Amino acid sequence: MVSEKDREHFRRLAEIEAELNQEALHACAARPPGVNIALGLELGEFAAAFGGDVSRPDEVAPITLWHRRSQNPIAR
Predict the structure, then answer these.
(1) Is 0.85 surpassed by the pTM of this model?
(2) Going residue by residue through the chain (76 aa), what tens digit of pLDDT does each one get?
(3) How far apart are CA 38 and CA 21, in angstroms?
């Protein structure tokens, strides 16, 4: 069961999160579009650094390829 103190704590967290989101929207709207695009690309590179190697697609196991080909005669 959740106490009233816990409910208030999470309500306050949600309120602060909403305020920060609103501030971020205003900041984004005030910047030129090119700056937002550059920031988005930087954020994408940052996220990719944690997501693994994106320089080449994931390798597919030979059994998976065989299974796909055996299920689809057109792929042969």
Answers:
(1) no
(2) 889 999 999 999 999 999 999 999 999 999 999 999 999 999 988 888 887 666 777 688 888 888 888 887 665 5
(3) 20
Helix, strand, coil content of the chain in percent (nearest 5): 80, 0, 20
| 3-state SS assignment for residue 58 | coil
Domain borders along the chain are 4-75
Two tokens, residue 4:
């009233």
Residues recorded for the chain: 76
Name 66's Cβ contacts closer than 8 Å, sequence gap at least 6. none
* DSSP code of residue 45: H
